[in-house]
Amino acid sequence: MTQTAPSSPVGADALAVLARLGVSLATGGDLVASSPIDGAEITRVAAHTPAEVAEAVGRAHEAFLTWRTVPAPVRGAFVRELGELLREHKDDLGRLVSIEAGKILSEGLGEVQEMIDICDLAVGLSRQLHGLTIATERPGHRMMEQWHPLGVVGVISAFNFPVAVWSWNAALAFVCGDAVVWKPSEKSVLTALACQALAAEAARRTGAPEHLSQVVVGAADVGEALVDDPRVPLVSATGSTRMGKAVAPRVAARLGRSLLELGGNNAAIVAPSADLDLTVRGLVFSAAGTAGQRCTSLRRVIVHRSVKDELVRRLAGAYESLPIGSPLEPSTLVGPLIDAAAGNGFDAAVAQARAEGGTVVAGGSRDDGVAGGTYVRPTIVDMPAQSAIVETETFAPILYVLTYDELDEAIALHNAVSQGLSSSIFTLDVREAETFVSAVGSDCGIANVNIGPSGAEIGGAFGGEKDTGGGRESGSDAWRAYMRRTTNTVNYSTELPLAQGVEFL
Ligand code: UN1
After folding, report:
1. Which residues form the active site (predicted)?
2. Domain holding 422: CATH number?
């Protein structure tokens, strides 16, 4: 069917990219897909009903029953093909990410690179899904563990990393022998359909089951149907702490597992010895990059009193020179916020920060950007204390400055928020650096030295503590969450010795 002509050049650009990515769109539907660049509608997509979600889970479960019998290294061939397709279509998919999420092209491409990287990791992993052999107390016995495929994994993702978060989950789930049903954010449906088209093509090329990867789109009722379905043993949800607190009890009520990657309120401690040139670059990327819309974005800088004025002066100078505008322009470094509501959230946070005694030292207001979009100036607010607004994650480029005198005090301030995702310290003092990454230092899942809190690579486990939800995705041994463990004791003797020396029969 023919599409209605989109109302803006950005929309036309998106439709051309979608066609090249092999996405066929039907006309009409109740979900409006638009770009934050100019706010204009690109197309409409039909939302799924809860009944259709149940059907999708049923098909995925059937696919799982076959897929779990395929040797893991052969499953890896499917993920390798997906990675090849992503390499081939990197420019188009990266551009679509920029159009739909509003991040600059370099970051859109970087997000697709992150998908390629996790596919590579998963392919290698497909030959390394290992358990332990454990010493047994019984003669003529062997005790071992195996990791088996789990089932259908439900993935719920947010608008800000519209494709990478799916791939961290999906690439691992696929090599682990699972099927995936994905509910993307309503604000990033088109990139999800593009990923689905590539996954379907990879399945066709490698003979993987047709329904191994599925996408369901819609509002909360679609997510709830996925969360409540007993055929979904694992729900991996990325988004706000509020969303996670709604999802986790529902999954727990049916004794399912959830893997949560929720809000962050990430900080950097800047010590007297910090290399300020490097620190300023690290802080600006983490705080203003992606227009402050990463879960890892830097939101608080806790700076030693002796270097505070110098740091704030340099940061404010860097902020004033950040080009704001369409993320498709190569010179732009700060694109739009996702929608008008996010702009209101920015205004309200700046007003509250002022009311709590803050002084705006850079930004603080809207920017004209592109007509129809919501653009704000990256903002720095010097705060007298870690007041309520500083404890709140506002998904916008606002950086709060707090001052400290002793490292203990800085670490205490650092850890005194409810979130626990990512963190960093800028120091050339090895005692300070090691203290920060030690058991008495940062309480976050990620703690860095001399780099900002955002921009993690996929080889490490990604996620955080406290209100961030406790889940770990991506590298290290995060794959174990997508499998079930069995402990097997095998008796190859002619005797039947019982454990703990129990005598019976
Ligand atoms: C997110 O914002 O949900 O570490 C994920 C980073 C990226 C991932 C962010 N690799 O900033």
Report:
1. 261
2. 3.40.309.10
